[in-house]
Amino acid sequence: MNTIKLKCGLLAAALAIGLTSAVPFTQAAAGSTAKDLFSGTPAGDSTFHFSDIQFLSGTTGRAAGNGFLIGTSDAGGSWQSIYKGTWQFTQLDFISNTTGFALAKSSAAGTNALVYTTNGGSTFTKIPTGALALERIHFTDAKNGFGYTRAFAYKTADGGKTWTKITTPANTRYAEFTDVKHGWVLTLIPGFGYKLSKTTDGGATWATKLDVKSDEIIGGEIYTSGSQIWAEFYGGAGMSQQSYSLYASSDNGSSWKKVISQSTAGGGPAPGGAVGIVKEGPASPGGHPSNLELVDGAAILGGYSPAGEVIGVGRSLDAGKSWSNLKTIKGFQSVISFTSKDIGWMADTSSLSPAVYRTTDGGKSWSKKISIPSGSN
């Protein structure tokens, strides 16, 4: 394994100390402006932009992008540079303030590399994965975790050094495991639509829990927390619009509610024949779903509308019995990270208006905490 020494050593060390002790680094960040944070040459693009955010508490978290990783421990009052270089981060997966994994590319057209840190990000170690090109990871601790490609699921018990393929049904397009025995998969059924299936024996057997008919079968996503299971099924896309459906179960898949049924002129009908609680998801018109967070019993879905030039969230506080789409703000693409049903973060990941926002009222209102200056390069 090759150890990659990160730049900005003193600043990164200060961040690691700040993250470990949860002390705001206002003093360490004195004089560190957004222009300072985003100086230098962007990786893989002509300008800097965000790609992922992850917050471990309402005050402490990180934001990553093409050639940079920054952090805050005072709710965005000040930010510190952790890394500047050639890594183009695609996903952050920190399990504590100091220990974490990430997926990152070394070139725009390259595949993700798996990297690991034990000091808050001041240094990373690249973990070779051979021909395994991971698109998504989730570690439960420093040793145990799951990795996913477009069609397959894998598990590791040694911190990503070796991976074991998990048996999943044919045409799997999304998988989500909570432990080595329990998992869910979304599979494509040509000529029909989608199936959502569950395993309780590590993939040895699978039981179908939901069938969703769809004219278009592109894929979807699955989110789990305790007995709550939420699943997105994508329909067609066109004219900058996305058709999709969102289903929820509060009893581990025994029964389901169709929460969102968004049909669009550009994407056609929403998957599934049932009527949803609402006909549009967050960030209408024709908004695309980003990621969904399950926290404090709430389900919060990010959304963005390139056509409407807005980003925002929708949410349910009662396991899908009701749904509210909240007020949007200007933006073009988004990712969210919530640490409670009220406190959360949203990043505009476009190159047009890259910024990170914070909410303390569950997404009803947002305050900008940092933006990338126009023309940073």
Walk me through this protein's architecture:
This protein has two helices and 28 strands. The chain has helices spanning 9-21, 34-37; strands at 3-5, 50-55, 61-72, 80-94, 100-105, 113-117, 123-127, 136-139, 145-148, 153-156, 164-166, 172-177, 183-189, 193-199, 207-213, 220-225, 228-238, 241-249, 257-262, 288-295, 298-305, 310-316, 324-325, 329-330, 334-338, 344-348, 355-359, 367-371. The strands form six sheets. It has a seven-stranded antiparallel beta sheet with strand order 1-7-6-5-4-3-2, covered by helices on one side. Strands 20, 21, 22, 23 and 24 form a five-stranded antiparallel beta sheet that branches.
Taking all residues together, what is the mean pLDDT? 91
How many beta strands in the DSSP annotation?
28
Helix-strand pattern = EHHEEEEEEEEEEEEEEEEEEEEEEEEEEE
Oligomeric state of the chains in view: single chain
Query: Any idea what the shape is?
Result: globular
Helix fraction bin: under 10%
Task: Supply database-style keywords.
disordered N terminus, globular, about 375 residues, 2 helices, about 45% strand, single chain, mainly beta, five-stranded antiparallel sheet
SSE topology:
Blueprint: E1 3-5, H1 9-21, H2 34-37, E2 50-55, E3 61-72, E4 80-94, E5 100-105, E6 113-117, E7 123-127, E8 136-139, E9 145-148, E10 153-156, E11 164-166, E12 172-177, E13 183-189, E14 193-199, E15 207-213, E16 220-225, E17 228-238, E18 241-249, E19 257-262, E20 288-295, E21 298-305, E22 310-316, E23 324-325, E24 329-330, E25 334-338, E26 344-348, E27 355-359, E28 367-371
Antiparallel strand pairs: 1-7, 2-3, 3-4, 4-5, 5-6, 6-7, 8-9, 9-10, 10-11, 12-13, 13-14, 14-15, 16-17, 17-18, 18-19, 20-21, 21-22, 22-23, 22-24, 25-26, 26-27, 27-28
